[in-house]
Amino acid sequence: MLTRIDHIGIACRNLDETVEFYRATYGFEVFHTEVNEEQGVREAMLKINETSDGGASYLQLLEPTREDSAVGKWLAKNGEGVHHIAFGTADVDGDAAAIKDKGVRVLYEEPRIGSMGSRITFLHPKDCHGVLTELVTSAPAEQPEH
Ligand code: CMX
Ligand code: CO
Predict the structure, then answer these.
(1) Global pTM?
(2) Where are the chain's structural domains?
(3) What is the pLDDT along the chain (146 residues), one digit of tens a residue?
(4) Is the CB of 58 under 6 A from ligand 1?
(5) Which regions span the lipid bilayer (predicted)?
């Protein structure tokens, strides 16, 4: 079950300048930064709010590390802006399988590693009314305690 907005992914040309815009304009601070070579991004996660299930909602600022990456290609075509949305779930495998059964293309056979050790997959934007959609299960530290 998809329970929250995990993040909104925003493509930018210069991560440091964009981070500074969000800090100076809104007061959002960087919670985490990393490079994900598989995805071809350098990214900053800005935490917006925490949620009652132990998760949180973020802005994910994304600078491409190479031109042929998903974000690099998208930036060249569209310029800076909102690149994808991500829904949080406790069960990315189960939700991806259920959504695939509804005829939506799931881009990965198995979820891959995303921000902060999360497990992620993507739904094809052409099957989602033009919105690249990510499903995220946070790493265990962010799961609710039982
Ligand atoms: N949102 C909406 N539509 C998009 C899109 C996006 N982010 N990216 C591509 N498209 C559209 C294109 O506009 C194009 O449409 P037209 O044919 O009408 O022009 C079509 O999809 C194909 O686009 P493309 O430029 O040829 O790109 P590819 O098919 O090579 O790749 C996609 C598209 C979705 C398969 C690829 O971007 C992908 O695998 N994305 C998932 C991985 C990702 O985005 N990683 C970065 C974020 C990492 C993270 O969140 O942690
Ligand atoms: Co994302």
Answers:
(1) 0.96
(2) 2-142
(3) 999 999 999 999 999 999 999 999 999 999 999 999 999 999 999 999 998 877 899 999 999 999 999 999 999 999 999 999 999 999 999 999 999 999 999 999 999 999 999 999 999 999 999 999 999 999 986 455 55
(4) no
(5) none
Which class is domain 2-142? Answer: alpha beta
Q: Is 134 a catalytic residue?
A: yes
Q: Give the other-Cβ count within 10 Å of 82's Cβ.
A: 13
Strands 56-64 and 119-123: unpaired
Q: Are strands 30-36 and 133-137 parallel, antiparallel or unpaired?
A: unpaired
Cβ(85) to ligand 1 under 6 A? no
d(CA 83, CA 63): 11
- d(CA 74, ligand 1 centre) in Å: 7
Q: Which ligand is nearest to the CA of 127?
A: 1
Does residue 7's CB lie within 6 angstroms of at least one atom of ligand 1? no
State the distance from the centre of ligand 1 to the C-alpha of 144, rounded, in angstroms.
Answer: 32
Q: Which residue lies with its CA nearest to atom 1 of ligand 1?
A: 132
